[in-house]
Amino acid sequence: MAQTVRPAGIRPAPSRVSNARPATGSLFATDGRPHPVQEALMAVTGVLGVLAFVTAMFHNLHLISSWAGLIGILTGAYGQYISRTTWQRFGLIMGLGASALGFFLGMAHGGLFGSVIT
Fold first, then answer.
1. Could you report the per-residue pLDDT of 65-82, keeping only the tens digit for each?
2. To bridge 105 with a disulfide, which of 8, 21, 38, 56 should be the other Cys (CB 3.0-4.6 Å)?
3. Coil vs helix vs strand at 53
4. What are the residue ranges of helices labelled H in the chain?
5. Quick one: residue 25, left, alpha or beta (phi over 0 = left, psi -120 to 50 = alpha)?
6. Is 14 exposed, middle or buried, given 0-12, 13-18 or 19+ CB atoms closer than 10 A?
7. Is the CB of residue 61 less than 8 Å from the CB of residue 55?
8. Interval 2-23 mean pLDDT
């Protein structure tokens, strides 16, 4: 585990660290740099996860929930692969969980091609 949470105020020795920043003690601390691709994947995964989860509650919307869940799982997995901060990983895991739940319920209600291909 490369990332650890230190109590606020504890810093590494300044002689070994060239770009020292203050320890925040927060799980959601970022590195202070923009990551537009990772944040876009986090947002897309979250939207698809919510869409898949909500539409999975209705039996006749299984096509939307299964496809949105499948695409959400794929975008979330790639987002996890290239994520840089804990905040991005947290958002991606939440979106992945909702996408997976919507995907599985959509598959149980009829699947990706249910009643479209006979």
1. 999 999 999 999 999 999
2. 56
3. helix
4. 36-55, 62-82, 86-109
5. left
6. exposed
7. yes
8. 58
